[in-house]
């Protein structure tokens, strides 16, 4: 018995040790555990009895041994509610190599049950051990405010529906969110761009998989197919096979029952009468009727609201353009029936009348003009550019011999240039006022230049001519001082009246530069024009009112105002090239006066809103007028006071117009930066009208502050012209 008991003890010890080493793998149910306990309890008396004969022990020692063994076991023995034995096992902490997931399992193990079922209970579920999960205490509004102010790390402001506690994020979750927000790779060590391994192309195969030659059957027609085709052809010819046999039995019963009648079957065709007028065709649809119209055809919100507010009779269109992504999305047109009904009303209610139209070729109504190539020579290329002025160049003029060019601008200087673009002489007339106009004395035996700056009219003799011509020019300018001194001694008037102009020396500085004479008028001078003999010249001051027009005598240093009262503001004035006539232009009209009889001869009415300049043809019977409303007008004074031809070739105001003195050419200068060259032929036959042909458009100057070409002048002999621009340059066109 002792040996058997010891064997039992050893076997039970080995069993317990094996179970302990295996962490109680394969533990049976609770009932099996209880039976095992009973077996062990039954074996203990045998052990005590057997050992009592050989090994007497204290009972307390046995209890201590049992407690030591129970401490190593992974469970605790507790008493349940019924007084029975119950085993509570410790929670398993799985190692990394186990099958358990690293993710934390749900704390609340109630499953897929709504938490609203626990609203009437103090708990919200059970954990894995079956214990109640109590509902967390909720603070008041002040506690919620303090919690929102002092935000803990990982705070989300959400509540976990399983536990009722605030849902906070861990450090790993926050790091994952940061990487997602910064478009970074969430996983550490992940390479989004690994090196490509060419599995299939890394080894170059030099030999083909199969080098067998192509069989002959791939190049020879098939005999079997030829026989089959011959059989089909024979069957079709014999009628055994119908290749185009209609399908039978496809029509439905309803379609077979319907019967259609042709109401026009017995109608006889009738010839339409001679007066038959076919109905007008509908206009083809435009871009606004497209299902995908261009953006500029789509109405804005304001246009759509205005269209909806209008009465249907007042609307220009019966529809609003709409845009669709595809044609299949286009709905039905709700106005289709209405439009067809109105079309039918128009066809049978509106009478159609046949009108006879005159088939006239429009080209036959136009005058036959020569081609511009046949009217050469005329300027077409920029030959020389003159640079040196600061600011705008307001005026430019050719000398009588055509060898020198004078210019004046906003910098208050007058410059004389050679035709090659080199500046030969310059002087500064005023530091405050710009030089408005420069004009040469039209006599070849002198070399005198008149320039106006502000209220002063300067006469200069540039040291560029020969000694004889320079001496003659100085004598002409100095002759008036002797006449003025002699005339003053003979006058015995008691009351001194202020004259229209004061003649004096300009000063030693200007005299050393070549400016010998100065005449000061009452207001700012805008234009200067010489008489053909060179002894008289006129000045126009638009702001001078009564003294706006003045005529000066150079040989006597005398000035006079020819008009007591002039209707309108004077703009410019010119002498007739061959007759004693004087032309004065106001804003809307040009008046012609006879200087000998001192009376008004003719009034020219161009019809322009504001005249800017005009010029008289060398023949004396025609003149051209330029206006600020972009029109160029040709007047034949023998024909009518109205313009013979009106030309609109510019988009901005016309500043200056000029005739050539020996060739049938004239030009105009505009603020759009261009020059328009015309061929103007005038014949002595009164039955033939003048021929005006535009021959060339010259892109002359750059537009600066809405100002382009300021002045233009012609060479006295050659078909050359010079232009002055607001860009600070002068250009010679040849």
Number of helices: 12
Annotated CATH topology of the domain at 377-488 and 498-733: Methylamine Dehydrogenase, Chain H
Radius of gyration using CA atoms only:
58 Å
Largest sheet: 5 strands, antiparallel
Strand-pairing-aware structural class: alpha+beta
Cα shape: elongated
User: Strands of the biggest beta sheet: in what spatial order?
Assistant: 12-13-14-16-15
Distance between the termini: 147 Å
Can you give the mean pLDDT?
81
Identify the CATH homologous superfamily of the domain at 377-488 and 498-733. Answer: YVTN repeat-like/Quinoprotein amine dehydrogenase
By oligomeric state, this entry counts as single chain
Helix content: 10-25%
What are the low-pLDDT stretches, counting only 5+ consecutive residues below 50?
1-64, 488-495
Structural account:
- This is Ribosome biogenesis protein ERB1.
- By secondary structure, the chain is of the alpha+beta class.
- Among the domains are: 2-89, no CATH class; 377-488 and 498-733, Methylamine Dehydrogenase, Chain H (7 Propeller), CATH 2.130.10.10.
- It has twelve helices and 35 strands.
- Helix 1 (2-21) packs across helix 2 (30-54).
- It is elongated and about 155 Å long.
- The protein starts with a helix and ends with a strand.
